[in-house]
Structure formats: structure tokens, C-alpha cells
Amino acid sequence: MHRRRFIANVVAAAGPFTGAACAAAQGGARPAPAPGYGRLKPVADLRDGKVRLHLPDGFRYRSFSAAGEKFSDGTTVPGRHDGMAAFAGPKDSTILVRNHEVNGPVGAFGDESAAYDPAAGGGTSTLHVTRHGEVIRSGPSLNGTMMNCSGGPMPWRAWVSCEETVNGPDVGDDSSGGDNSRLTRGHGYLFEVPVDRAASARPIRSAGRFPHESAAFDPSTGALYLTEDNFSFPSGFYRYLPPKHPVQAGRLLDGGRLQMLAVKGRARADLSRGQPAGASYATAWVDIDDPDPAFTGRPSNEEAVQAVGRQGRAGGAAIFARLEGAVFHQGVVYFVSTQGGATAPGDTPPPGFGEGRGQVWAYETWSGRLRLVYESPRSSALDLPDNVTVSRRGTLVLCEDGDGDNYLRGLTRTGQIFDFCRLQPIPDDPGAEFAGSTFGPGGHTLYVNVQAKRGRSFAIWGPWERGLF
What are the entry keywords (predicted)? Predict the structure, then answer.
């Protein structure tokens, strides 16, 4: 390749966050707040006239497929709406594959004969909707799994759904999951859900048994990058190298190799704490020898949930605080450390591992370089980011999981952060949060979930061209 073309390709692959974005890290000069789309105001839901979201002028929305309602086949919509992806459907429709982060041995929804574990209540649903959130048809697509938190869309028209748990009959009970002895299968795996048919409910065991959160696919190499959300303990950033390129295979194959990210020259580098402005690290990968450990003697949940991560850290892998959302864009995997960073003056450290209010990291797949692109200076700027997606202009959309008001916030290519949407407080459900943000085909509609006691999905549309999405 000619030198000039090589340099141009490298610059393009570097992704949108450079220069000023790195200065947004804790301790550095910060860009001025981005103007975004303007002041947020209460907007009525086109479904029933109730105010559920606050949005800028010109934006509208409709909610749909709430927990407790019925799918097209007559079965009941489960709760805990979480990660989601959008795919092009026929006649300008959108196909959504949506996770349900249900914990405990509460029984499978939908057809129990198709369930991975008939005792487990999580899984995914697939919905065909219009650009304005009108449901054409819907139904279960994966059931009998557990704590399906997030995942990632795949270019062969599939969703990889991630279980954020290691519950099973071979593991002690967790603090909120109920009696694990009632489960029939081990959990903590990846499951592939095709867009056009029900899932096979076969776990990808070689991709690890740990509290998975998100999956981001690199089409140039076939690697699948994975985040770990270990609430009380350190988390790691992984990649799964399948035995055959998934695009060639037409699916994600089991039998590959799992690795965990390390910082070169710094064994067990603790990146969960506040970082200097422009923090950037050369990285390496540590092999995980036993990605699917066979638990004997029914160890405690606290022991089992660390079994894979401890292998990586024993080999020098880096430490993060609660890795959640991840998205691939232009050769870069952007991923979120929900509780990473330094504790700002006046802020109370959140419970669990990590004392900050959130970091956004970028891993350059083409160079192996890890960069910090944003670290929250205080909870009022960004409060515990969770799921993440990217707009056509390269702006990240961050779902918050904070203690007070929860927002959808934008993080621009130059490191500016702005408010786009605020969740109307739900009086009897202070823990309600945004999740599963994803742009539909063509960027006309932003689909997003609210995880709540009675969670629901939303379609949001309006004058995107007026701002930074």
C-alpha cells in the first residue's frame, strides 16, 4: 500500500474521538458543554397522552410493548427490558431484538419446550414495528435464559444476547436471584438470536461463563469484544476469537479462544480509578485457559462470579469498574466503565466496585491502543453510564443508570457532553433507568427501553439534522 493511502486509512480507522475528547478525562481541561438540541421539556406520549419523557422542541415519541401486555401470539411480555438492536425489516419497518434481564427461577416465558432452562425467566423478544413505534407483530425469540443484560448486533443479521450472571444448580445462591437449586442449567453465557427465526438456545461456552454485559463485533478480524459487569468485584475487557470468521460461517461458532486485555508493562493495571488527561495505553492479550469452569462442591456465588476474571488478572490483565455498554464504530470499540473514575468533591461513591461516576474508553482494534475519551467530572455531567450506541455522525448516545434523574446524553466527537432526553420520574419506581438505545435503519428513529417495574420500549423521532446525532 502507498504510504499516503496507508496514513489516510489509519486516520479514518482512529474513529471520531481524538484530541479534545482526550482532554475531557479527569484532571484535564474540559471542552465547553455542547449545545445539543436545546432545552428539554415534558412531551406527551402519542400512545396515551401521558408524559413519560422530556425532549427538545420538535421531537415526538410513542411507547409500546410494556411489561404485562401481550405479544402477538398471546403470551405475556416479560419485564426488565434491557439491551436491544434494530435491523431493517420489510416495507420500511424495523425489527427489534430486545433483552429481558429477569433473574431467578421464576419460570420461562413463552414456549417452555423451546427453553434453554425451563426454570429461568429471562431471554429476548423480537418485534416488528413501524418507524413511529406501532407494533406490527411480536413474540418471544429466546427463553429460559437469565439476566439477559445487553449484547450486540451482528452483520449476519443476528443479535448476541449476554447473560449477566453465573447462576446455576452448581453455584450458591446470589443475593437477589432466589434458590439456584431450582435451576436446571448453568448460566453466564452468550446466545445468538437470528433476526428471522427463533434462537437455537445453544450457549457459546468457549466465550466464557462470567457476568457478561455487551458484545461488539469487529468485521475485519472476526473478533467479538466483550464487557464484564461484576458489581462487587473487578471487571475485565475480553475478546473472543471464534474458530472461523462468523461472516463466513454465517453464525458465531463455539470452540474459540477467550482472552482478557492487559496493559503492556503494567501487570494488573488498575484503570478503575481516576485517569490523567489524554490517558493512552499500549495493550496485550492474556489467554483464559478455562473459560467455562466446571464448578464442584457448589461454591458461593461470590467465588464463582470471579472464576474467569481471576485467571486473567493472574496473568496480568487490567482492572476496570463495572464494564457495561459497548459499540463498534470505524475500527474502534467504545465501551463504558459505569463506576470508573475519581470521586468528585460533593459526590457520594456509589455502592459496588468503583468510586467514580463513569468513564468511556476506546480500544483501537487496528493498533491495540486503549484510550480514555471521557471521564465524568461529577454526577450532574454524567451519572453512571450504562448502554451505549452511536449515531451516523459518530456521536455516542449514553444511557444513564444514576441515583437521581436519568438522562440519555450525547458525547460528541470532540468530547462535549449534552442532554438529549430525561426520564419523567416514576413515583413508585425510583430505580427506573434507560437501556437498549439503538438507531433504526436510516437513522429516522431512536429506539430505547426504560427498565422499570413496568418497563416499556419507546420510538423517538424528530429534527435530528438540527443537532449532533
Answer: Signal
